[in-house]
Amino acid sequence: MKILSFGEIIWDVYPDRAVIGGAPMNFAAHCTKCGANGYILSAVGKDKLGDDALAELDRLGINTAFVSRNGYPTGRCNVTLDENRIPTYSLVPGVAYDHIEYSDELANRIRAEGFDALCFGTLSQREPVSAATLRKLLDTCGIEEIFCDINLRPNGYSESSVKLCFESATTLKLSDEEAPLLEAFDFMSGISFSDARGAICEILQRYPNIKRILYTKGSKGSEVHTLDDQINVAPVKVDAVSSVGAGDSFGACWLTSMLGGASFGDAARLAAKVSAFVVSRTEAVPEYSIENLK
Q1: Which candidate, 120, 188, 197, 117, places its Cα nearest to that of 151?
Q2: What is the bridge-based pairing of β-strands 76-81 and 171-175?
């Protein structure tokens, strides 16, 4: 099973350390941990952070065949801490992952790999070059399963980037925190998440390409929705340490399990176990064996 994740590779740079991340990178890493061959289509700079990023991708078992290097700095997010050590994040613009270049050769290589799924979100669409590349790949790559985690980040999304997710996805993932933000978009006119099931059914009717929606609710569990059914999954109780990477692990585990033949509900229950484990650790991609979490 091969899963291709498109988008950002980012170093979160703290005053005393740097930690690699980015939702697509975390997603690819968790796909690998859950038994798939996780690839990422991205770009890093010809700098030390780029060297370090490639080393980290290799350590995490992510296939880097579609990671290019260009003349822009490697993606980074500057993190400052106040007197109470509460972080403030500042995404640096104009970095390598904003300039993922399309070519016919790239599209041909992707088709030749025979990927089972393509995954993307909104941040990687913030600049024109990568946004255009993604749209062209959606038209040419021939991958049937499109997994979109809208992953709304402050100053990291637009109506057009969210709309592309809705128009392209076969599986859409969103959280109960993100859902109300969608109501401000023109293409969501008339939809209110005061009735979550009703809103989700309306989305499924407006966008028949979307076959199912994963609706995560943090400590309150998760749901898998189709037009005909709603599967409720209870939360797995743990002592929470960090939520970073939890949503990425949930989506990656669900997708990998579903593609492997699991029912939507069984895939979601395993995904809940994996994301709970991630929440109990500081790292976005901690060490674990999927077999030990089943």
Answers
A1: 120
A2: unpaired
Cβ burial 162-182 (10 Å sphere, 16+ → b, else e): bbbbbebbbbbbbbeebbeeb
Cα separation values, 61 from 4, 32, 108, 112, Å: 13, 7, 24, 21
The CATH number assigned to the domain holding 108 equals: 3.40.1190.20
- What mean pLDDT is predicted for residues 249-262? 97
Number of domains in the chain: 1
> Rounded to two decimals, what is the model's pTM?
0.94
For residue 9, CA distances in Å to 15, 49, 223 come to: 19, 10, 29
When pLDDT is cut at 50, 70 and 90, the band that residue 155 belongs to is confident
Containing domain of residue 199, as a range? Answer: 2-6+23-43+50-66+101-293
